[in-house]
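Box 3.1. Reading complex inputs
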Amino acid sequence: MRVIAVANQKGGVGKTATVLNLGAALAEMGERVVLIDLDPQANLTAISAADEAELTTHDLLLSADVDLREIVQPTPIANLLVAPSEYALAAAEAQLADADADRAQFRLKDKLGTLAEGIIVLIDTPPSLGFLTINALTGADEVLIPVQCAYLAMKGLQQLLRTIEGVRQHANSELDILGLLLTMYDARTAHAEEVKRRLQEHFGDRVFGTIVPRTVAFDYATVAATPLVHFRPDSPGAEAYRALAREVIDRA
Ligand SMILES: Nc1ncnc2c1ncn2[C@@H]1O[C@H](COP(=O)(O)OP(=O)(O)OP(=O)(O)O)[C@@H](O)[C@H]1O
Ligand SMILES: [Mg+2]
């Protein structure tokens, strides 16, 4: 099993699009993939068959006897399952009993052991560095960081890196940075090249060779509640996520 958290506390940088399309591309390659929605916004959950009565990641984190296998839902895509979220997840931390405080950040990790060997788990996180993102980083083997191709996007990275370092020191010494993924790349702005160059200076080959272009096709796919990889399989955005999937497999 390989557990990859997709995290960046900046909102709207392509976390959910990355989880969904990387997941769909890996599934297409024959990998068995489980997507975990750890965001109360539940954007990822839209592609699953879950309805409101189903158990969610809120139940997973709060109830000791709810198993990850019980909450995963099928999607229209073969080999791709989703553990759905719901808005109530936003209150999960406050709902934990005080007695559990020191295990609070291990809530997700404690539930990951029940999945079968060979599965790839991708975790979608909210735009914050709070309880839910910390749970994702604590349960993960690797973190993938989507970075929007904009100069200011690099500023928040320091804070994210400090958080990752904190999780390494206190809870998960094995946590690796799988890579930084440049998203929403607009070839018309030279600016993006500058962002890429600077990131490579800092992170070297941790920056994925694949760059995801900015294209409205992602919005159309979102409206259709389908990964772009399936909605428009030949589009440049879909091809980018397929190339990313190959890089993710190669880096294992
Ligand atoms: N490469 C792209 N080009 C253009 N639009 C994109 C791209 N990737 C994602 N989008 C769109 O940008 C918006 C934000 O993307 P997404 O929801 O993946 O970001 P996010 O980081 O998960 O946001 P949040 O922090 O709110 O969870 C969505 O409407 C999505 O369809
Ligand atoms: Mg999101």
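In summary: The chain has a mean pLDDT of 93.
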